[in-house]
Amino acid sequence: MFFCDADTVLAKIILPRPGEYYTIPYVYWQKTEKETINQSLKEIESIGAAAFSEGNSWFVLHRNVFDALDFNEQIFGYGWEDLEFSVRVQAKGFVPGRCGTHIIHLYHTQEDRQVDWPQFYRNQAVFEAIQIQVQNGYVPDWRNSETLKTSHSAWVADLYFDYTGNIVVNPLSKTANRFDIVDGKFVIHWNDWPAEVFERDIEGLAYIGPLVISPTTI
Questions:
Q1: What is the pLDDT of residues 4-27, one digit of tens each?
Q2: 152 phi and psi, to 5 degrees?
């Protein structure tokens, strides 16, 4: 399966070798809007490997890998879906290789992208939350996760909750923390702070206070 960015021309196709499940093609980026495909091909021919740059939005993937992970549907619009997917694929042990396919990425301006910047930064926050969990040895389940605007007495942040692993990522501290849901309330066991309790409200979660543990009656 071949995945590519928009405005892409396949200049040369060489499939991965048997046993290669995740490979990256060579990507050439056009320099100006006036550059033609023929000019790009001549540039690649004359310069060789130095003509190519790294790109995150193109990869050749075995169907079994995609069936096991697929794309994170919490990310939509422009930006970060390719990086997020790559992080999870590599966390599952699939080391990216290199295939001989040549890609020409057509030139376009920043305005051509028509980026919805609030959505772009929201996607970035989801990506960073996934990345933090992977760095802590856990591959999150995006199908059973959500971002909740959380209002504390000292801060406000969009916390990312993974209900499969009971892990919550705090983007302010860049940490993955354990949480439980007790009697409908969220108990977050911070790595660097005593546990605290939150409850759902219209906007997301609201701070109740520190977790109070009642003494056991004997």
A1: 888 899 999 999 999 999 999 999
A2: -105, 165
φ/ψ of 166, rounded to 5, equals 50, 50
Instruction: Rounding to the nearest 10 degrees, give the CA dihedral for residues 180, 186, 189, 195.
Output: -130
* Shared-domain flag, residues 15 and 109: yes
The verdict on residue 31 lying in a domain is yes
Report whether 188 contacts 168 (CB < 8 A). yes
> Which pLDDT tens digit goes with each residue over 53-100?
988 889 999 999 998 888 999 999 888 999 999 999 999 999 899 999
Range of the domain at 108: 2-113
CA 159 to CA 126: how far, in whole Å?
10
Question: For the chain, what is the domain count?
Answer: 2
Residue whose pair of structure tokens reads 């320099």 in the numeric block: 31
SS (H, E, C) 100-124: EEEEEECCCCHHHHCCCHHHHHHHH
Q: Which residues of 150-180 are buried (b: 16+ CB within 10 A; e: fewer)?
A: beeeeeebbbbbbeebebbbbbeeeebbebe
Tokens of 26: 């060579």
Residue 40 placed within a domain: yes
Statement to judge: residues 66 and 8 lie in one domain:
yes
